[in-house]
Structures are given as C-alpha cells and as structure tokens.
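Appendix B, Record 12. Input sequence as logged:
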Amino acid sequence: MLARRSTIRHPSGLDISTPLLIPSFSSKGMPLGRNGVSQVQEVFEYSGEFIEETLLVSAYDLFYKNLPPPDEWANAPELVFLDSGGYEVGSSSDLSEVAHDGREAKHWQDDAPLREVLQGWSDRIPAIAVSYDHPNSRAPFAEQVSAALDLFNDYPKFGRNFLIKPATATQMTLKEVMKDVLNNVDVLKDFDVVGITEKEAGHTTIDKMRTIAHLRAAMNEAKVNAAIQIFGSLDPLFSCLYFVSGAEVFDGLTWMRYSYHKGLAIYRYAHGPLELSLGTQDRHVFMSCLSSNVYYLKRLRESFCRFCMGGDFKHFGEYGDQIRTAYENLETTLVQL
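Logged structural output:
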C-alpha cells in the first residue's frame, strides 16, 4: 500500500503529522474590492476564525500586500506553507480555476522578492518554504535541486519544500523530467516535502496517479522519507485518488471556489439551498460555505488516517468503491511496467 502517514520535523522543533489537507489563499482570479485590494484579504481575515492548523499563502501576495504580513495576523495557524509565487505570475490556470481576471502580474523575474519575504518572516509562525519557481524559467532537474538548496541553506529556520518542475518551457508535464528524478531520487533526502502540481503530473487521472506512485515507490526504496505534496489539488474526490497513490499533502483553492457536498465539489452557491435556506444572502452563503468546507477537510483527513490503519476503502464514503477500482487499475498499470 502506497498511502501512508508520516511526520515532518520542522527546524523549530514542531512535529507535523501527515496527511495534510491545506486551504490555500491566492489573489489570482480573485476580484478587486472597491478599495483596489484583492478580495483574498477579506476571505483570509474571515477564515482565520476557523483555520487553526495549517494554511498556504504566497510570497507574491505578501510582498505586494494582497495579504497582511504575518506579524499582523489576528489568528496565527500552527504552520504555514509559504509558496514561492510562481502560480500568481503564470498565465496558466490550475485545474479548478473557472475564470482568469486577465490582470498582469507584477515583477517576479528572480528570487529577490521571495528572499525578502523569507528574511522578514515572523518567528512566531513556523513555516515550510517552497523552492522558487517562475513559468519563464525552466532548468534540468539537477539545476532545480541545486537552486533549491542554495535558497534553503540561506534560510535554515524554514522547512524545505522542493517543487519539481518540467525541465523546459515546451514540456507540459513531468513525464520527461521524472526520468532524471527516479534515477537520482537520493538527492530528495535533503528536503522535508517534495511537491508536484496536479496539472503537470499527467494528462489523465491514471497518468497523474501513476506519476505519484512511481515517485513514492522510488522514494520508499531509497529510504527518502519526505512527504509528497500535490499542489493545486484540494478536491475531495481527487485528493482521495492521489492519497492512495502515495501523496500525503494537498493544497488548493477549491475550498474557496466550490462547495464540498457528499464527496464532490459542486457549485459554491448550492450550499445555500442545501445547507441553509433559500432566503440566505449570497455573501452569507459564501462565508458559510468557507467554514463548512474547512470542517469537511478535517473530516476527510480523519478518513485518510483511518484508511492507513487497515486499507478499508469504505472510509472514503460515497465513492469508496470507485476509489478502490481506480487503485486496482493503478496497481495493474504498475505491474505491467
């Protein structure tokens, strides 16, 4: 069984138990309010009331003040994943994005702004930093590793999250670079978390599951204990599929864009007639949906933990049988290689 639980040991002394399902915040795709500030700030401040454990923010949004600095957060979580800003400056969307606002990103051509955010990070909140990424900057796997280590060595108080990216601008998935990754998997021992984006893991669901499974199996064989994170995947169904494939950390914006209902992500405002009332104002439906989704993720995490105890797919709820079938298909494709 590739699904697992593990412990990430943070330099601060904090031990973080996986699996983790992490609500993410990003200004990308979020409308501007009347004051010209991204609505992500309003969502962030509201959800601080019920996100107590882990969240992900972007260095881009902190640098450009789309979010308040960590010292000003009224409710500090136990741990923050600090993304490097590559998503915000890229023109491509993740798989859950339904609209792109067309705004051009501000300067992010090198890691200088990221380093400024790292340098000024508050010691009161332990953080795991993600290696620098820019959509116009691609490099072979060995160079990606070297650049990540150079960054992390300068900021030892952060956990290390290495995001594997395609080696060239023409590569849309990780298919080519994964050959180098699997042949040199030992180098991943220097990281606490190894990340890939859902979109770049493959063109089909089984391809994505297979990419995760190959990586986890190779890491297990090399005794690399780092957790695998799937960036951009916080869908209640797909997180289950990737979890049984070997990933154990999941983040994304789905919790803000949709409503979680009976194992699926559905139209956000359906939360009103399904859970509240027909007379509930849209703004209140949205805010209620956010808190409901966060608690849904907590329950989903508990089901992941129970699955690890015995491998019973019924813990995945309504779609346990489908997830079992998908896992059996994955096993078949792995045996054939």
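The chain has a mean pLDDT of 93.
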